Amino acid sequence: MSASSGGMPALVFASPRKLPRPANLDGRVVVLDIAFAAVSLGRGFEKTTGAFIAQLGPRLARWVDHHDHPMHEEYIKDPRFVLATKAEHGACPEMITPALVTDTGPVDTIVCHFDLDGLYAAAKWINRGVEPYPGADDDARVVDTRIGVASAEADRIDRALRAHWTDETLKLRVVNYLVGGLRAGIERDTIVEAAADFGRIAEVAEGLAARYLVEGGIALLEIPSGTPAFDKTELLLMGQRLAPVSIVIEAGNATIAAHFESGLDFVTLLEIGGGMPTRVNIPGKRVPEAMRTIREALARRG
Q1: Longest dimension (CA), the chain
Q2: What is the CATH number of domain 200-301?
Q3: Of the candidates 207, 211, 267, 272, which has an alpha carbon nearest to the alpha carbon of residue 40?
Q4: What is the pTM of this model?
Q5: Are 265 and 276 in contact (CB under 8 A)?
Q6: Tell me: the pLDDT tens digits for 14-23?
Q7: Where are the domains of the chain?
Q8: Cα–chain-centroid distance for residue 44?
Q9: Three-class SS of residue 6?
Q10: What's the pLDDT tens digit per position in 238-257?
């Protein structure tokens, strides 16, 4: 989705494997919190991220991201790329400074990840590198790493986004709400209403968690077909209370997760070639092999 309000840049919400067509983006573009596509999954880096960068050409003004990837070493040579690992920066907004925004110059379009981290990064960029409210950077880090306690404001926004993760109007209103100084109005009302729906999907997740099979340090769950909507993040966190690693298989794909400070690096262990070390997605057919590899890693750790 692309939208602009007043003098704000157009906002486009995306993900590593679902990037917009460069031809549809206006003017100079900044990309925030969009990880480079994994080398060995889906269409791979070259056909997704690499092609997107090449097609944008000189219109790419800046790319700021904090996910691990082997291609960082190549692109960090280009001053337009401000890249870090997840260990270096738990969230993207803390990488955005007034000096960086000023040095980048005017931009016409912001492409950002559609989660809280990405939306907070977009709001901070529009705010010329200043937090939309005191503690916003810390809130983004807490939500993205699941370590610590977020403020009531961030928790409400996170719950709203997780309950309605495909609602692009909600995402736009979240950014407008942050940039607008957290004022009462339609943006806040929309967030409050959406957050109220989180309890429903969290309740489904809680019911599913009773089906986890725990063995050898892994909590494994295969989602039955026809299951109502549920919150996967909540379900994975519930699995991690049962074992160091949780795996949820749904519709032929698997999500593998561990605590942010677990020391586990699934990107390296499973040779995925980019992403968040403690939460990855793989095809379901790779699960048996992945479980063997993870159990070996857990055994080595004692």
Answers
A1: 57
A2: 3.10.310.30
A3: 272
A4: 0.90
A5: no
A6: 999 899 999 9
A7: 2-195, 200-301
A8: 18
A9: coil
A10: 999 999 999 999 999 999 99
